[in-house]
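Dear colleagues,

As part of the handover before I leave the project, I'm documenting each prediction I ran so the next person doesn't have to rerun anything. This entry is a single chain, and its sequence is reproduced below.
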Amino acid sequence: MSQDELDALMGGGTDLDSVEIEDSKEKDDVPTESENDDVPPPPMPSKDNKMVEQLDDVTKESEKNASEIFDSVDVINEGLADIENNIADNLVEIVDSNIEMFEKLSQKFPQINSFKEMIEKNKSLKSELESITETLQNNQDEIMVIMDKMQFQDIHRQKIERVINIMRSLANYMNHLFSSSTDDSQRVSSAKHIPGDDTADLVADDDIEALINSFGQK
């Protein structure tokens, strides 16, 4: 509604049905009393919402899981190393011995083709063992990469612990900052209002107590 329309309305010379009412965007943005009632109060301190305690749980669990993963990976790595050593120390030696023996037999009895076949089979077996050994070595290299990456997990845990220590130091500093040698029981009660206050806008003690109690009820 314009100022001219308002002046005419106050003077009684305007038809109310002809007045256009402008939508107020600000009114739509102002939350109603019922909407304000739906906003929950801050939760009371508990184990579930204490930040430092939650971070402590995270670091403990992270350290525990990382240690278990390291142990499992180490067991796998040792198993692969044992297989590789067994192939190198025993199986390859046996295959080389077979090849040498069948070569001698084949030279002494060239008419027997089975000796030549056994030579080829043992050579093929030796080639397969070499391929398996290479695969084992590659897997051991990958395990070392995994263990190196797990070191970053431990670094992240240490960073979280550093944040915890800083938070605790700040909390202790604030406690010392607001501390006093005067006991609270010896303090003079606070004035309800001081000169210059608009007493009509002051909140009564009953209202403050009711507000505090409401935080623990929702």
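Confidence is low (pLDDT under 50) at residues 23-28. The helical segments are 3-10, 25-29, 33-37, 51-108, 113-177, 205-215.

All the best with the project,
I.
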